[in-house]
Amino acid sequence: MAHESFTLASRALGELRRINIYRSPGHDGAAGALVLYMPDGGLQEDFPHVTSALDAAVRAGEVEPVVVVGIENTERRRDMTGPTEVAKDREIAPRVGGSAEFRAFIRDELMPEVRRRVPGGGRTAIVGESLAGLFVVETFFAEPGLFDVHIALSPSLWWNDQGLVRGAGERLRADPGRTGTLYIASAGDDDVDGAIAGFAAVLRADAPAGLRWYFEPRPDLAHSTIYRAAAPGVFKRLFPAGVTASPR
Question: What is the CA radius of gyration of the chain?
């Protein structure tokens, strides 16, 4: 898929990061196209299948024009996780708990650079799976105004003894004017501790009226297959060409 790549020196992360940008057919710099950010956005990661799905959907008139910003990983488990009090969590990588710094990189360094390179961007969205889905949900709470649409496929909400789930109700009730869109999906084999289902229950009880949210269990899919299998349908549902999507 045609794309452009560049590197960005990050002060927030203290390293050089590689970024890949895809612009769909129909994108016009003056048209305010949707800008979709994606962790795991390297050319050997999820960027190719996401952009291929979107390219086909835009050409078929099923999805609005979109710009995809793929962020290639360096230390994935560091960037996607917040702090944890669980010793076993800290065993998954030499360094964890760097999500705040990664979010600062996106907000303060990457987004301004994308706006410079791709003028006319409109709504912003973020998509991620597994630990990247955890980052999406954490960002939904930690910085509500950063993205308009949050998509978390099989998010690793078990992290820190389900810390995000345990605090979700209070955070939602404290922000009754919250708007935007949140989409959560779970696969058949990845919610043995009930964290994702528990989060959906909190949304049913406490989601603000102005928040459009979706919870879609996919028992037919596995954690290892949900991103490729589910993402095309999710994009068509949330970003339909010329149509405002409605939650179920």
Answer: 17
Instruction: Output the 3-class SS for 61-100.
Output: CCECCEEEEEECCCCHHHHHCCCCCCCCHHHHCCCCCCHH
Enter the pTM of the model: 0.95
Domain positions in the chain are: 4-238
Please provide the CATH number assigned to the domain covering 4-238.
3.40.50.1820
Six-digit token pair at 90? 């800290």
Q: Which long-range contacts (CB under 8 A, 24 or more apart) does 52-61 make?
A: 52/1, 53/231, 53/232, 53/235, 54/22, 54/24, 54/235, 55/1, 55/22, 55/24, 55/25, 56/232, 57/232, 57/235, 57/236, 58/24, 58/25, 58/26, 58/241, 59/25, 61/241
Tell me if 147 sits within 8 A of 124, measured CB to CB.
Answer: yes
* Amino acid making up residue 160: N
- pLDDT per position as a tens digit, 83-124: 999 999 999 999 999 999 999 999 999 999 999 998 777 899
Q: Tell me the per-residue pLDDT of 154-188, one tens digit each, with 9 for 90 and over.
A: 999 999 999 999 999 999 999 999 999 999 999 99
Name the residue among 35, 2, 63, 180 with its Cα closest to residue 119.
35
236 in Cβ contact with 220 (< 8 Å) = no
